[in-house]
Amino acid sequence: MTKVTTLGEFIVERQADFPFAKGELSRLLSAIRLAAKVVNREVNKAGLVDDIMGAAGSENIQGEDQQKLDVYANIQMINALRAQQEVCGIGSEENEDFIAFDQGQSIWGKYIVMMDPLDGSSNIDVNVSIGTIFSIYRRKSKPGSVAELQDFLQPGDDLVAAGYIIYGSSTMLVFSTGKGVNGFTLDPSIGVFCLSHPEMCIPEDGNIYSINEGNYKQFPEGVKKYIKYCQEEEDDRPYTSRYIGSLVADFHRNLIKGGVYIYPSTGKNPKGKLRLMYENIPLAFLVEQAGGCASDGKNRILGIEPEELHQRTPLFIGSKNMVKKAEEFMAEYSSVEANY
Ligand code: AHG
Ligand code: MN
Ligand code: MN
Q1: Nearest-atom index, ligand 1, CA of 246
Q2: pLDDT at site 124
Q3: Whose Cα sits closest to atom 17 in ligand 1?
Q4: Ligand nearest to the CA of 121
Q5: Is 245 in the pocket of ligand 1 (CB under 6 A)?
Q6: Distance 278 CA to ligand 3 centre (A)
Q7: What predicted TM-score, i.e. pTM, was given to this entire model?
Q8: Ligand 1 neighbourhood includes 247 CB (under 6 angstroms)
Q9: What is the best residue among 39, 210, 246 to mutate for testing ligand 1's pocket, by most ligand atoms within 8 Å of CB?
Q10: Could you list the mean pLDDT of each consecutive 10-residue stretch along the chain, which spans 340 residues?
């Protein structure tokens, strides 16, 4: 029988990668692992409670007491991270302002977590894959004080770890601490994440492009031209179009198979729709660790100096040569203003 490496074992084995962290980062990842299992349990029975209650004839239960799953995921993540006391603050897509812990040991926590607790939330009700995205930074302010805005507004280049959980046909946790990307699949029978995708690498070329083409008329000229390029019958094209509408799921597929995901600026969302801190930076970190690229159409996502918590940027992410090609089209046909 081949030896299975659990996520717990892997974290302990890799502790030496962080000579200054003394197990703190490991404890933090363990907290995320625990929260992921709890959210997974709820995601797997989405719809069930409502339906059973309805069938039993109970009134006033639907909608009222039922917490939305993204709010639930947010609370689970916050509670798990607070309990570990390694984190002094959390930035979440679900909270307008950052959360700075001001009590107990947490003010001594050295880390900040940014997260999109439930990504793809419009897909919850229709049984399509959704996810959780997280990233971890070292705080800038002094431990022992309450975290400040500067702790949260750090560029992706300063990340120490990032990852996502995908609640799909199976549940996976994929993460990187800056030394490659590893994927773990949850074995639901024993409730343990097992290393299933070691050292993940994204193919340099791919044949999938992922974009919401319904917005075509609102796209910058460079993106329109790139889409036409993808559709041409030449060399290895036309490429295949795949768009789930859950960033994590679209990203995960392209990471494994090779492809490019684009959410450009549109007339409705001139800065794009996706959030720099909670979505774009963590996935950009992962894709670079896997050998791919991420940009806003011109600039590397990880090099962008963030200005506000809920900042949005366009996102071009995936296989290196595909992202570069899309950037060439942007440079040729779209002004910088059109990109933002
Ligand atoms: P969230 O559910 O966290 O708000 O994110 C939704 C995002 C992302 O997951 C997805 O790729 C994108 O929105 C889809 O947007 P469109 O429906 O505009 O294509
Ligand atoms: Mn999201
Ligand atoms: Mn979300």
Answers
A1: 9
A2: 85
A3: 245
A4: 1
A5: yes
A6: 9
A7: 0.94
A8: yes
A9: 246
A10: 89 79 84 92 77 39 54 93 93 96 91 96 88 97 96 97 96 96 96 97 98 97 98 97 98 98 95 97 98 97 98 98 98 76
Question: How many residues are present in the chain?
Answer: 340
CA 21 to centroid of ligand 1, rounded, Å: 34
